[in-house]
Amino acid sequence: MTETRIVTKRLRDRPDDSWTIDGALASGAYEQLRAVLAKGDTADVQEQVKLSGLRGRGGAGFPTAQKWSFLPPDSFPRYLVVNADEGEPSTFKDRMLLERDPHQLVEGIAISSYSVKCNVAYVYVRGEFALGYERLARAIDDARAKGFLGRDILGSGFDCDIVVHRGAGAYICGEETALLESLEGSQGMPRIRPPFPAIEGLYAKPTVVNNVETLSTVPHIVRMGGEEYAKLGVNRSTGTRIFSVSGHVNQPGNYEVELGMTFRDLLYGLAGGVRENRKIKFFIPGGASSQWLTGSDEHLDAPLDMDFVQQTFGVMLGSGAIMVYDETVDPVLIAWRLAKFFAHESCGKCTPCREGTGWIEKVLYRMSHGLGRPADLDLLVDVGGNISPGVVNAPFVQTTICPLGPSAVSCIASLNKFFRDEVLERLRNDAGAHA
Amino acid sequence: MTTAEPQAQKTTVTVTVDGVTFEAQPGELVIKAAQEHGVYIPRFCWHERMEPVGMCRMCLVEIEGGRGYPPACTTPVADGMVVHTQTDAVKQIQDGVLEFLLINHPLDCPVCDRGGECPLQDQTLAFGPGESRFVEEKRHFPKPIPLSELVLLDRERCIQCARCIRFADEIAGDVLIDFVDRGDRMQVLNFEEQPFDSYFSGNTVQICPVGALTASQYRFRARPWDLSTVETSCTTCSMHCRGAVQSSSNRLVRLLAVDSEPVNHGWLCDKGRYGLEWVHSEHRLIEPQVRDGGVWSEVSWPDALDRAADAIETAKELHGADAIAVLGGARGTNEDAYVWSVLAKGVIGTDNVDAQLGDGLPAEFVLGMERAEIADLDRARAIVVLDHDLRDEVPVLFLRLRRAVLELGVPLVDLAPAAHGLSAHAAVIARTVPGEPLAANVHDEISRACEGRQGRVVVVVGRGNLAAAADSIVGAAAELARVHDVRFLSALRRGNVHGALDAGLAPGFLPGRTTLDAGRAWFTDQWGGVPAERGLDAEGILRAAADGKIRVLVLVGADPVSDFPDATLARRAIDAVDTIIAVDGFESESTKRAEVFLPCTLWGEKAGTVTNLEGRVQRVGRKVAPEGTAMDDWRIAAELALRLGRDLDLATVDEVTDEIARVAPAFAGVTSELVKSARDGAVLPVAGHLDEIVLRTGELSIMADDGSGTSWDPIKVHGEAPEEPADESEVTAHVDAPALHVWDRRAPQPEAPARDAYALRLVVGRALYDDGRLVSETPLLQRLVRDPDLRVHPSDLARIGVDSGGQVKVTSTRGSQVVAVRADAGVPAGIACMDFSADALGAALLVDAGQPVVDLRVESLR
Known about the structure:
Chain A is α/β, with parallel strands linked by helices.
């Protein structure tokens, strides 16, 4: 099993200077920008991105070209906002791209801005990413000094600059409309849609919000051509994705693989299998918001195909973060820890999430600390259903404004689906112990 | 053929909600359209006067063909839309949201002010779960904490709907409270060391859908089911916001705002809302008194009235009717003012009558200017503010102005002498210098601001500066009227000053906006006589009194010593008058020397009509029985008339209203019947405003019709347009009645004395919390009175050589005093601003009514 390194190629090939302007230029950075500007065809970039089948790498997997196409044609100014607020627990791919290949992102931003006719792009960087912020800021300065940003880029007449904004530690600001609120200086709380950001986004202007990995891929699509890129991957999951593998694997880390590879090949072939040769009890395939899969053959042999896993198992590949838990792990404790995260990060704007995540956390705390009651699991499922009716799988049906609330319900749905008997047994025992 | 109307001409959209199909306006929100057609969708955060936020999730519905469950409060109607609000899924969501709201709610309903009128209670009953499944520890906070002197916050009860935060931001522009923290720790708070000091804070208590915000004034004072309610108008200022006043055990305990589209949009200022206690003050004088040998003694009403009538009769016999003057009348009802007008002008025969106390504008202008209505602000071409700070003078008018400018985009032209709450949003700022004409380029600037806009320019005109003669305001108004197509909206602030002026309580005028000369024949016919010549205004009366020419001064709720801008003149006048007859609720500086004191009823104790600043006649309600034997002002006047030999034959307040409608030209058609049946009252003269009249279809109800909502929803009185417009002849004055006075736009040219480079020109404005009786006898509001200070531009501060906060000695032609000085960049250089106050440090001792302006010499005390 091998990785297919496209967006991670430079940073893997040049571990010592991939983030510097010299290292980047020595390995082909900004050549695609130069080519695009020389060609002068904004529609062509969009066409190539459309042909590539590129889908957003932030979590929702929305087709990128389609997102761009929602911008009203005659409304200016418009903005490109880069979501670098990577906060989904166990996801650490954008951090790597920021820290170790910022020029790739800058080039992607410049090309994409050119394509969507925007002159100012904003990068919202997670506040904790100190090194990533420094290197990105430096990269922007260096790129500007070399004429890859700023006025009249490479003599093309195209102006584009990038503003970097640091977040202040709220997970919710990774949600695109909360991000926009935060960028505007307000509390990070999601907006009601419609209006969608493409119509009324940053400063009430048409806005595209794209993930770091998504935009980092754009120069390669330009280089390869959309059709060529689309040959990678499987079905509607084209190209490669970086998976952040963590937990009880022997070699945790970021792996860029062609979509369509199986979980087994990723977890055992690349990530070195489970520690001490234990079995996988369950794993979270797409970040903390996703429902879980188990160590069964059916699940391990499933392909990394966004639509397949969603339609077959009701889980999502989400942000590409895979957390692996071996058979020694108490799933209730994991559920509690996840619930605690969402309760802590709920912004408080809408009722079901504000109150519901806190309630779920309290119940799971009791359950995971020997104070559960037999009715608790069904209570959780019912309460979860009031946040995400039917506790259905991604895409969420929700009573909340944004998907944070339903994300907190994923662990409950998974507990109930895979470990119901185990949990009920334990709740009965706990209740008996306290009777 | 008329049968085939083309589809394109349809301006409405067809919507079906729960099987009810109706036509709605495009863009209207589902929640509102449904409610107007009988389907109530439960909600907490939505308020129809504010932008929807979709936070509480109580109003989620299903829409056929749509995904998920959109909030009805953020979803506009669309043609063919089919909405379901009662499906199992929607009911489950409602049940779930209520359960979520209740898990951390303390359920301390038995000790909560909201208990019994609480949307959370009511909606839980109607839509919520029957039992609690929450066994965890609830969220705890210390409770309550004060957000200000007036508003307390119980964070445990809060359901985070942000109504209060949104009100403070969107409506009042006082961004003093916001959410702190997040998730289930999220709470409303004021900023550190900065209380929620907004003039409008009480509105947040009224619109809070739970008992999280409580009013220190009302807290624990009553249970809602023990209150009885009467619809009324607040007469604290001249806006006349619609309200519902409530009492318990014959004490006024609460005033709630009623949503009136033409007037207050459901808002009140805190002074109006919380200014109730003064009515029941222990300092109230509630029995008639006379002074014998310098000693007050309570006497019977007949004795007191006889004594007053004797004094008047004697003075008239010895010195003529001109030796008698009447000041005041702006505090009561139209009926009070009218009967006092009859007494003074028709019975006594003096025209030395003035309801304004030198702090208004000439009656010739106010009664004759071409008027705008409040709602005209919303559709104005531009709004010109020819006043000072409306937020302090007529607070809810400030809210209407703010909405017109910020929400509806009407350009604002700010001609105030110093910056105020709306200056930041002005399209044009041209500061007027007291005593000087408008800047030469003002008209070009106004024209530029108006560019591309339709409609008329509305000039909001008031007496923003008590230290400058009214001439300069009238002059500026005349100039504006010559150059632009303008309508005027008066911002004179006294409670019922417009009603009093309309009733003829001004020199040279008779009731119904007609002049003494024009109305002489008609009123002689109606009343049996009117004064021979135009009399004196308040300043003239006080000068004449100081010169010994006024023998009997009747003060009808007036206190010139504390309230006339030039306190020195007022004091000299009061000291020189032989006999003062006081009609009041309290003893004042001016009535201390009175010979007869006749206690009158106050707001809340009397019924009748009042006229607001746009000329809208509305009802005030009587909620409590008067204290002691206090009598309505009009009845006192009628009793005095009887003793002076004239039986006015007026038995009830409705008879007075009807007499006004019959004899006063501008009031033609404004019968007691009309005022009772017109939901929003009637704008004078009614003939020109017939199409605006809305007939009420029900009485005021604080509980919503379906029992599912309560007072936290905008309280409304339902109404409908009359099927047939009233017959024009019923509302047109009798053919013999005199014509209405028209202002001839003659502009008095202000004399502009050159400004001394070392002097600061004084601007004296009114603070909302002034030293009037309502504030001084309401301890809660008394605490909010600002310390008087002198506000000057920082550069002047440097020139004077004093730091902000330091003491300076200020000297005018009237004398000197020491005041604190404060730097204020909103005050132009060369100007000094001060709040009006009659106390030792106040501006009243600096103002010289004989001068066109007041220039101050300011010296550092170092």
